[in-house]
Specification:
By secondary structure, this protein is α+β, with helices and mostly antiparallel strands. Helices cover 49% and strands 22% of the residues. It has 6 helices and 5 strands; from the N terminus they run H-E-E-H-E-E-H-H-E-H-H. The strands form 2 sheets. A 3-stranded antiparallel sheet has the order 4-3-5, sandwiched between helices. A hairpin with a 5-residue loop joins strand 3 and strand 4.
Length: 131
């Protein structure tokens, strides 16, 4: 194998990447390691708000205090801007984003009378100890 063939093989295993610090070249293994290490896992919750017009608003967030304050200031969701003051009716247990999105969609499909019960039912399931 001469020097040119060796260069071709090496360049095939390298990939170009972009980051905040600039463009660089790393191997695929290095890129995967950095991506996995760079992600921060956040804790998400699904919540239900009781609006002033007696309607319910369901949402999800990774910071319930900040999101609730934003709803009451009128800067969070268009739906809640004209329905203030708001009251936090229920919040789920902590979960990952994917589970929170699934639960939010499930709750939004339910009739008003069953929404809070579904959220509390999920809470109980998560708090049960195995065995």
């Amino acid at each position: 194998m001469n020097g040119d063939e060796n260069k071709i093989i090496k360049t095939q295993t390298k990939i170009k990447t972009k980051s905040k610090t600039g463009t660089g070249t790393r191997t695929k293994a290095q890129a995967k390691t950095r991506t996995k290490a760079g992600k921060k896992s956040r804790v998400w919750v699904v919540y239900i708000l009781h609006c002033s017009d007696e309607s319910l608003y369901t949402g999800m967030t990774n910071n319930i205090e900040r999101r609730f304050a934003a709803h009451n200031q009128g800067t969070a969701a268009k739906y809640t801007r004209s329905r203030r003051p708001l009251e936090l009716m229920a919040a789920s247990k902590k979960m990952n984003r994917s589970d929170a999105m699934r639960l939010e969609i499930k709750i939004k499909k339910l009739p008003k009378t069953k929404k809070i019960a579904a959220l509390k039912k999920t809470e109980k399931r998560g708090s049960q100890s195995p065995g």
